[in-house]
Amino acid sequence: MIGGGTGLPVILKGLRKKDVDITAVVTVADDGGSSGVIRNYINVVPPGDIRNAMVALSDVPELYKKIFQYRFKTDDQFFSGHAIGNLIIAALSEMDNNDIFEAVQQLSKMMQVDGHVYPASNTPLTLNAKFKDGTHLAGESEISAAGKTIEKVWVTAIDDTEPQAVPEVIDAILNADQIVLGPGSLFTSILPNLMISNVGEAVLKSKAEVVYICNIMTQKGETEHFTDAQHVRVLHDHLHHNFINTVLVNTEPVPQNYMDRQKYDEYLDQVKHDFKGLRAQGCRVISDNFLELRDHGVFHNGTQVVEELMQLIGRPNSWIN
């Protein structure tokens, strides 16, 4: 799986119950919240998405997970807003001379991770965006907050080197039976991974079926008024190739006035469907009720999505026309 944000762990938790070898390739371009503060202070890959993926695949007792995930209260001046797991990942990385990849592998053993969690890059990356009005911005949080229509994104390394993934990431992609993108923010969780040149190239070279889990809701500052076909078009345009084989689309309507708009203020309207537009891009469309409603928010039903992914694995090469 390739992605980041809150959607990735939902699917990882479901996959962990199946007899599959899971590798999560996680974005390292986050510059907000606790991850952003840690990144700015000690120049380490932002650990938040990595932490959540590890917990989703961990076999340690629930108490250990709760401690790892615990976030200090905002009135704790020194540790305000920081998750303990973020601090542990940062410390291990510093102990390993800022080798975040090796630090995550060591911690994965401690956390009894059932699978692999790989940072998409071993160095912190900055997400850059060009907007339709011709302006540019750098930084995930700045881009999301701009409220402008994004034309394209790319990543740069903070040490001015060419962004690259370590060989283990590329080998995992090339040897995969199935590559899953999402669910997650299109421009700030999925594309930052694919814009690392050797990651994007590996996805195009892979013989695995590429499955995109389309978002249920459009997102403020990223995908306002987007259809499912427009989500896929953006992915194809960025890699200059129609590489997505199958798209999972939720068709269950979200009940009116269910969402807490203050708590989930980044989400706008339900993604509209354009199945003709998806098929015109060479995609097989699988539509079903993938909706889960909880805490007055809208999420993917991890169990339903995973069952569909498992069925796809059982039908090798079935996406080829």
Task: Give the tags.
single chain; 321 residues; alpha/beta; 4-stranded parallel beta sheet; 14 strands; 38% helix; 19% strand; globular
Concise summary:
The chain has helices spanning 7-15, 33-42, 48-57, 62-69, 84-95, 100-110, 140-145, 167-174, 186-194, 197-205, 228-239, 275-280, 302-313; strands spanning 2-3, 23-26, 116-119, 125-131, 136-138, 150-157, 178-181, 209-213, 217-219, 246-250, 267-270, 284-288, 291-294, 297-300. With 321 residues, the chain is of the alpha/beta class.
Describe it for me?
It is a single chain. This protein is α/β, with parallel strands linked by helices and 321 residues long. The chain folds into 2 domains: 2-27 and 120-313, CofD-like domains (Rossmann fold, 3-Layer(aba) Sandwich), CATH 3.40.50.10680; 31-114, no CATH class. Helices cover 38% and strands 19% of the residues. It is built from 13 helices and 14 strands. It has helices at residues 7-15, 33-42, 48-57, 62-69, 84-95, 100-110, 140-145, 167-174, 186-194, 197-205, 228-239, 275-280, 302-313; strands at residues 2-3, 23-26, 116-119, 125-131, 136-138, 150-157, 178-181, 209-213, 217-219, 246-250, 267-270, 284-288, 291-294, 297-300. The strands form 5 sheets. Strands 7-8-10-12 form a 4-stranded parallel β-sheet. The protein has a 3-stranded parallel β-sheet with strand order 1-2-3, with helices on both faces. Helix 1 (7-15) packs across helix 13, helix 2 runs parallel beside helix 5 (84-95) and helix 5 packs across helix 6 (100-110). The protein is globular, with a radius of gyration of 19 Å. It starts with a strand and ends in an 8-residue tail after the last helix.
